[in-house]
Amino acid sequence: KNSAKKRNTELTIISISSLVLIVLIIVVWRKSRKRLLQKKEEEAKKLQSQLHNTLKEIEVKEEKTKVLEQKINESFNELIELAKNNDTTFLKRFQEIYPEPSQRLLQKHPNLSNSELILSAMIFLNFTSKEIATYTFVEHRSVQTKKSRLRKKIDLPAGANLEQYFASFSK
Fold it and tell me: Are 47 and 55 in contact (CB under 8 A)?
């Protein structure tokens, strides 16, 4: 009887201990899971915040790009108008808007005259010979002659494309 009672007490202690251990394991597991979920939520919020900031930066850059494109278009249109009006400030403004091609051209061909630089700038802007003749108030044939002389002065073969040659200075 004593041994049965002792056995019952041991079983009760083992059962209670097992139950406490199981409850403890469940509590620890839930806390661990909760911490893991909180960590993942924090990471998700952080990533979402980074994404939001990146999108804002992209929007700002797109807006700046639009503004720059608009300024470029305005400058280009202004330059075209100066050329069409045979304005004396055309070459200066061309050199301001296209500084790198202008400098490269002058470095490679420092002996070009002002009128040859103006012709080169108009060719760079893809004006046709007829347009150049119209805007500079000369005959079409005169423009062709000027182009031929320019080719010789910069050592280009007679059939070489001046447009491509001058475009290469912007690369």
Answer: no
